[in-house]
Amino acid sequence: MHLSLRYCFSILHRRGFSTSSTQPNTPQRASPFGLRALNVFPAGSQSGQFDLPPERALVIERSSGAQLWTPEGEMLVDMCMGGGSVLVGHSRPEVYDAAVQQLKLGGNYSYNNKAAVLLAEELQDAIKMLERLRFCSSGDEAIMFCTRIARAYTGKRKILKFEGGYHGNSDLGVTSAFPHNQIEFPFPSPSSGGIYTGNVLVAPFNDLRTTTQIVRESLPDLAAIIVEPLHRCTTPAHGFLDGLRTLCTTHGIPLIFDEVETGFRLAYGGAQEYYNVKADLVAYGKALGGGFPLGAYGGRKEIMQVVEDRWRGSDQPYAWTASDQGGNGVSCAAARASLAILRDRELPTYKALMLRGEYFRESLQTILNHYRLEAHVIGEGSLARIVWTQSPSLDYRARSLAEAARSKEFLEAIFRRGILVNPSNTHSTQFYLSMSHDKDILDFALDVIDEAAAELAGTLSNSDGTPQREKEFDPTSPKKLRSQQDVTSKMEEAEAALDEKIREARKAGRRAQWRFAAKKVVTDASSLVSTVWSALNATAGELAKRRQKKADKNE
Known about the structure:
- This protein is of the alpha/beta class.
- The protein has 17 helices and 14 strands.
- It has helices at residues 3-14, 32-40, 81-84, 93-105, 114-126, 139-154, 171-174, 208-218, 240-251, 270-275, 301-304, 329-343, 349-370, 403-416, 439-457, 478-484, 486-554, and strands at 62-64, 67-69, 75-78, 132-136, 158-162, 200-203, 222-227, 255-258, 281-284, 295-299, 376-378, 383-387, 419-420, 429-432.
- The radius of gyration is 28 Å and the shape is globular.
């Protein structure tokens, strides 16, 4: 374990977070800044993402890698990573430097800028179906524009989504995202007050037969199908995404991929590359910006041309799309730096991310099994989610609504021990890994989760009513089993290869910096010599003129 990491974890212990006791010594009142947050934000949450008990309200001041610090000096290990937006790690120097350099040139022009053009070209190189694209400020906006464009292009109103799918904060995005009543398909459930559901149809994820039936019955007014290819960490069943592609092609319906979460995470080309299925329109956000606010949307030229202003007021399909902050130079510069890290062919980035995710999911499932908790770990790539069911589920409806309370209790137990997770995460427990989550960080998090699982097992009952603690326990510790997993050695090999490549890159970078500095010194010295020589020549010339003038006067 790195010295800095050991130091940070020792601070974590001293600040009251325990990793060796099921009864952590944590403060039972909000931090000073947490109290101030409670006085200005509803439930003490600036964005609505976290809704913690008042006594656990805290504020983040700074970050590095996979770690966060509060103004009071408490350190937390981050398993949220900005909701998945900081895939390369917090405060990554390359991303920070790119943003700072762009700031010196200007921030936001609300107009075409060099950084945006360069980024758009890189996205087209990575994702071939992006024949035309535009930028906006977030994944929310990107999804909203995709659905508006589809409606304008087809002249139809309804969008079909899948139950349990979250597509941002719009009415469509929240509809049936976490319904409390299991109503008949394709009827929608609002999931929140203030939601209009009239133009939304809902189908069960991974059920191609039911989806096909709904599509055929709704063709006269169906504008598009929107789907998260990795549906809230639920893996698509074999043939499901291909089936949606065929269904949409057959009936002339645009297929929209919401890749706000999967874009650049499952693969550099996102879920379309990972699952080898192409959409007609796609929305990106989160990891695209490298931690800065940025969204992108685009697709087939034929469809995207409806946003061109030449159609406004004509009888041709037209969709208004605009974003004052979209494509601002700072976010685009940061995005380019982030993507450069991810696509670096010299670094086994995605192999390492995949193995870290596999290691974490297997280890997490081992812990849950050890304490006989009725839960299953799902996810792909660097994503993991716990669903509190007796058997793995292929769709939202298979999960019990009662899992929300169990998930919240478990997440709060983890949070109390110094791991930043989101206890308000609806009906599930999700973890986002990043390039900064090396084996040391993951093992620390898993040890903390082990303690939280032990606490939960002592307070919960199984579905048959028997207390968790009355069942026989596996005497082998989850920590020991972790070391025996096949993926462990593979991950360690990948980590070593990644570390070596990074060291080589840093050495090369330092050599390049030294060469640049030496060249600059020589250039500056040459410039100085030239300047001095010019000054001396000018002075000598002036003296000669004066002598000549004096001589002429004497004559």
